[in-house]
Specification:
This protein is of the alpha/beta class and 426 residues long. It has 17 helices and ten strands. The strands form two sheets. The chain has an eight-stranded mixed sheet with strand order 1-9-10-8-6-5-3-2.
Amino acid sequence: MIRRIRTTFRRVMVPVIAGMMMLGLTGCSDQQNENATETVKEADNVTENVEEEVKSETSQEVTEAVGTEESTESKKTEAGSEEKAEKSGAGSEKETDKTGEADEAATESISMTSSDGKTHITDEAGGAYSQVVFSGDPDELVKFDKHTYFEGDDFYIFFQKDTEIPGDTALFVDQIMAELEEVEHMKYSDGEDDGDSYWRDYYFDGQFQGINEDCDKINIFVLNDPENGNIECATVNECILYDDDFTNTGDSGSEGTVYHELAHVLRLRQSPYLGDVMEEGVALYSEYELMKKHGYKDYSMIIYVDDYANDKLLEKGILEKPERAYWDISYDDDNIEQLDYQYGFRFVCFLYEEYGDDVIKNIGEVASKTKYDDYETDPSILIEIIKKGTSEDVFEKFGQWLPENWAEKSTECRKYLGVDGGDWVQ
């Protein structure tokens, strides 16, 4: 999907291949609208791919799955605490073999900045490309005269030739990834690796062969020309950004694109694709929360909370028939009003408020155990997945929550941005 910026809006996309909808569901006639609930409830019977998995899933299974995850997460947290405790003693005198081992483990961590506070660029592969270690200075601008990469503990950043970025770029990315984990209550480390070097081959002239091609770490590609017709986008382990997303910060809102795309990567690492409404809703929710936390103003956010496209949402029946509206908006491939963003942001705000911090994680758990083609993403399948990760009446609750709560959310955002506007719905 596309979110426009560059003068008016920012354009953001999670690349997917739109497949033919199952059972020839190619329209939304009046009769279909009237029988929407029945059609969705029969999704398991009409979709061969999910017949056994979706029908066999129960709320108890979701709870058990989440409980297992929480148990595993608890163990990971304990293990992480022990590891940090070991590393904290790495700088002390080596009095025992155990202390020596901790010191050795500490050296394996890759620093986000150089030890002398200066940016270092070294040639590799016979001068074909370079590697950079940043100074950490936000006021320094570093320009690369050839394709260059940075390696962090959890990610690589590949900079296209002629990109110019601040000296604290690696620190910024590392910080944002950690904060996104807190907002979404998920971990990048929980995701599955899925190697794909297409973007690297296409944008970087085939350089960096052999570097993270299996995506053990996340690949972040930073390009230098935002006017070339491409857009920022993300997949399960990779994303494309532009250098001005790191330099045009503050009130320009460009840094929000970094939040948005890395939020996509985090969510997509958890389970198969959940469709445009859910994916864009999670990314917007994450971006909005970090916008407030960091005190910058992304004025494009106003269109996702105020009056933009609200008439279209009402026409789709978002209040009276929110489940059917979800189906119709998910099915609309063109979606020029970006109703998937509009619906998604509202829906995800509701989900977190109604079902708690782990709600998106729970939905992803169900999706991971459901057999479906995530490139086709039949809305009926996605609706069943959402219900099993929340409750059967989740859409009815959303239809009641929206008119009672969204005006307050809109007012909050408008007040933060200093933009006047009317109530969301009269």
